[in-house]
Amino acid sequence: MNEMERIVRTFVDAYNSFDVAAMLADLHPEVEFRNFSGGTLDVELRGIEAFTAQAEFAAAIFAERRQEIVGLEVFEDRVETVIDYAGTLAADLPNGMKAGQSIRLSGRSVYRFDRDLIVSIEDFS
User: Fold this and answer.
1) pTM listed for this prediction
2) Rounded Cα distance, 79 and 111, in Å
């Protein structure tokens, strides 16, 4: 396993265990995050502070969550994963979803690197 793959797997494990500090450990200070849902960009963040706030918010609204990597490919400057996602909400959301409701989806994530730090994450579902 190369270093970029190890970092991505560590990041996903930290995500699954709600360990925000461990999620941040291998992120570049100017990390960029984008989430695309149904082809529409619905979240875009820049910088470790914004990413931290989003990660803490997301951790608070889920009672449980799990990303399972079902495919992974390593390139020169990035790692692309195919994921299955499942989660159960801990809080009601403004979009009408209620606490206790489950979410299941499949998608992919692209992690771009600058040396041994993740400089951008793009999630597609």
Assistant:
1) 0.94
2) 5
